[in-house]
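dumping this here before i forget
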Amino acid sequence: MSVPPGTPAAPLHHTHPPASSTDATSTTPLERARQAAVVHVQERFPGVHAWWGRTTNRWWAYVPDRHGGRLLESVSLDDLMVTISQNTSVITYERRLPWTSR
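structure:
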């Protein structure tokens, strides 16, 4: 399958379709806790996109850098946050120096 030139790239973060009115009541406490954890990670590390992999049962994060970015995964949220903190120095550098060419 080919993509026509000029087609915008898909977003780098994991998204789900909007919940319908019937889905809103089916959200479990565990799913709500995972959603809150994603918000916490993304607030702590601006520019990082995080999500819980329903199929893999692992935590994932995309950490952008000047070379394109890194995809990180971990079995626990705490381990993922440690790994993200070890891989975010480029984000901080680029944010401080926005005029730097990539």
